[in-house]
Design goal:
With about 300 residues, the protein is an alpha/beta fold. It is built from ten helices and 14 strands. A hairpin with a 6-residue loop joins strand 13 and strand 14. Helix 5 runs parallel beside helix 6. The chain starts with a strand and ends with a strand.
């Protein structure tokens, strides 16, 4: 099967944002994305940057154009398209993803196991694939930072809404050995991949469920001291009442996947159900919000 490669040229900041959009907003996402700098440039300020995105199935151009416009990247020149010969180009691209250190965690692919072993921190092995959340994007890395800040919170149970690759659920298990952890995702392949990633990390006691939003996990009045939701701004706002109902009395919520300009709208939706921001993992584009009850 041939692979399609789309190449964009542009400023580093724009291409870093595009990297996240192709991996965590576009659906189905790109199979792999690499961001490259022209090393022949005299200085970093003058460096030319390009982003290479690999697809085994051609993305819907109308959806792609809409995402670029909605997220402020409509000014980028159209991508150059290359049809690549039969070869595992996706695996080749993924080898370029390095070790990620975020908060207390070290994330790595199998090709970087030796590098990861030499670094201090809680190790999580995640192979980049079609499930969201390799840890190489600000949304996931920011959530790992937020989890690190909650280390001493020590929740009895954790709900990971939109678990994707399962990286946050697995990271939560690294922090809290005795917590009951559930991950839900609307995408059936992601649920399968999350379970495989958990097994790779020697974790067999996380429950992964295919569900729209919180699904049936809050039936019978079940409440969670910690709820994680790394999805997108619109579903975050839609789920605000459900998340508030599912949150234990003194619980905490971690929200991610929203742009900085969307933060106030998301926060307003949660204020209406009695939750307020008490901390934030700051990022110029992709902040992570930490919430609790207004009267906590």
């Amino acid at each position: 099967m041939s692979t399609l490669k789309l190449i964009w040229q542009g400023p580093q900041a724009d291409l870093e944002r595009l990297d996240v959009l192709l991996s965590e907003v576009l659906f189905p996402p790109s199979d792999a994305v690499t961001l490259l700098k022209d090393d022949s440039s005299a200085s970093d300020a003058d460096a030319a940057w390009s982003l290479h995105a690999y697809f085994t199935d051609r993305p819907d151009q109308q959806e792609l154009d809409s995402i670029l416009t909605d997220y402020g990247l409509g000014h980028l020149d159209a991508a150059t398209v290359e049809d690549l010969p039969d070869q595992d180009w996706v695996a080749h691209a993924l080898e370029g993803l390095g070790v990620v250190q975020s908060g207390l965690f070290v994330l790595y692919g199998s090709h970087d196991a030796a590098k990861a072993d030499a670094l201090p921190g809680l190790k999580v092995q995640i192979e980049a694939n079609r499930a969201f959340g390799t840890g190489h994007h600000p949304t996931t890395a920011g959530c790992l930072d937020a989890l690190s800040r909650l280390e001493k919170f020590n929740p009895e149970s954790v709900l990971d809404v939109g678990t994707g690759s399962g990286v946050l659920a697995i990271a939560a298990r690294r922090l809290w050995a005795d917590a009951g952890i559930i991950g839900t995702d609307i995408d059936a392949p992601s649920v399968t991949i999350a379970a495989e990633n958990a097994a790779t990390n020697g974790v067999d006691d996380i429950t992964f469920i295919e569900a729209d939003g919180l699904g049936s996990v809050t039936e019978n009045g079940r409440r969670f001291p910690l709820i994680l939701a790394n999805i997108l701004a619109e579903p975050l706002m839609m789920l605000a009442p459900q998340i508030a109902d599912a949150l234990a009395r003194d619980g905490r919520v971690v929200l991610a996947g929203l742009l900085d300009r969307q933060a106030e709208g998301v926060l307003d939706a949660y204020r209406q159900v009695g939750l307020v921001e008490y901390d934030r993992v700051s990022d110029a584009t992709w902040p992570v919000l930490l919430l609790r009850r207004d009267d906590a």
